Amino acid sequence: MFVKRFFEPSIAQSSYLIGCAKTGEAIVIDANRDIEQYTEAANREGLRVTHVTETHIHADYVSGSRELALKTGARLLLSNEGDADWKYQFVGDGGGLPQENYQLLRDGDRIAVGNVCLDVMHTPGHTPEHVTFLITDGAAADKPMAAVTGDFIFVGDVGRPDLLERAAHYAGTMEASARTLWRSLQRFATLDDWLQIWPGHGAGSACGKGISAVPSSTLGYERRFNWAFSVKNEDEFVERVLAGQPEPPKYFASMKRINKQGPAILGGFHLPPRQADNALEARVASGALVIDTRPAAVYAGGHVAGTINIPLNSSFLTWAGWLIPATADVYLILADESAAALTEVVRLLSLIGLDSVRGYFGELAIERVKVKGTPLTAIVQVSPTELASEIQYPDTLVLDVRGASEWQTGHLPGALHIPLGYLVDRLHEIPQSKTVVTQCQSGARSSIAASVLEQHGFKHVLNLNGGLAAWRAAGLPTVGEVDGPQALKS
């Protein structure tokens, strides 16, 4: 049996290629949209992708399963568990695949990929249709050696059961899903200790709150050290699994819809055209969404008014998903205009369904604006001591853009709390007449927030340099409890 794990760091997502060396058949589980990586890996090993499947309808990225099956002629195997709201809508409608190339899966079904067997186990809780695949190397054993658990069990954590309510907006489902997840865990816990756990995500994913960076584990280890297996009472489990979950990115809701209906077929990553250097201001003036991907410090030092700064770093895709509407036509400003760099940005955005990148500019476009005599805009950085002397004045407002759990650990006195991902929706809560000082933990998210405020017409925006960490390092006071009018729901 051949096994290869693929890891996409931008969304902390794992997918798997499992093949039978004797027959040359292979299956891909939980493919993302970058499908070439799977076919290239299979070809290198002398395998052909004959089966494609996934553990559930994903919320954090666009599935590549359908396109991979179309490209390879593989059989597409999809869960048929859950109620009508959680069925794959493109199955049986043609969908580009012949009817005989679909197979709907139920608990207890078995998939044969050469000598490799995958037994389907329904493991609802994270989502109603979620399944786990128990992997048996039939050439060497008669019992499973591993489980591809998707978003059911992670190393050190379990899948969050609140996404149906908080991301997909199915009201009143959190507690019921948590109880379903408990029952799934109790059933799974009866399997053998040696069973390897191959999860669908690692540290950094918003699909859990405490996922380890370790890529795999065993059921025996998780039974001993994963908090979810140590809880013996269902009510306690429900309370703990729902507490402290991070805010689900806004794009999660559209991902569920896209993956149910059938993602668009890309046919590769198509590079947008370079725009004329003198067209940047016109694009901004026309209302186009222009994303400046340069580092925050560079952007703060001088940028074209009306652009938004989402630095091209490890958090780029997270904030792109929060701040770029799914239907928006997007233009990029890139410091690196190489084909490789452009391809990577387009690939990243495509992972979460942001396919409408219409063009890009280089840094010369910003220089051209300066040459024309139009002054660039800067975001003034304020130190903790400077802010401490200004915060007492009624015309200064501190805007804390951290997450809800961070806010609860302490915040600046009198600060207004709006997490960065919700900022555009709640701009009406911020008085435009005031000087707004954006603040997060280190200064990274608050820099993005400052650019969003400026893009929406706020004239007096500063950023707390170094964020709350610098404030505390300077020995300045924080408030530890949420109370009064600043206790805004996030």
Give an overview of the whole structure:
- This protein has 490 residues and is α/β, with parallel strands linked by helices.
- The chain has three domains: 2-261, Metallo-beta-lactamase, Chain A, CATH 3.60.15; 277-371, Rhodanese-like domain (Oxidized Rhodanese, domain 1); 380-486, Oxidized Rhodanese, domain 1, CATH 3.40.250.
- The protein is built from 17 helices and 21 strands.
- The strands form four sheets. It has a six-stranded mixed beta sheet with strand order 1-2-3-4-5-6, with helices on one face. Strands 7-8-9-10-11-12 form a six-stranded mixed beta sheet. Strands 17-21-20-18-19 form a five-stranded parallel beta sheet.
- Helix 4 (174-188) packs across helix 7.
- The radius of gyration is 24 Å and the shape is globular.
- The model is unreliable at 482-490 (pLDDT under 50).
